[in-house]
Amino acid sequence: TMQMFEQNMTTNSIKQEMMNDAMDAAFEGDDDEEETEELVDQVLNELNITMANQIPGKS
């Protein structure tokens, strides 16, 4: 019936919103940028390159 259809659509909409929120939370990352910078610095240190002298504003 139409009532069951509407109920299923509402339930699916809520589930989709919850899944989107979970995916956003999983993939957003303030830590990602910091981890990436640390990894880049580590690689550059291994190559004896310092970015502080090459990029303005980087300390």
Automatic annotation (TrEMBL):
This is CHM2A protein. PANTHER family: CHARGED MULTIVESICULAR BODY PROTEIN. Belongs to the SNF7 family. One of its GO terms (biological process) is vacuolar transport. The lineage of its organism: Eukaryota, Metazoa, Spiralia, Gnathifera, Rotifera. It comes from the Eukaryota. InterPro entries: Snf7_fam. Pfam families: Snf7 (PF03357). Gene3D superfamilies: 6.10.140.1230.
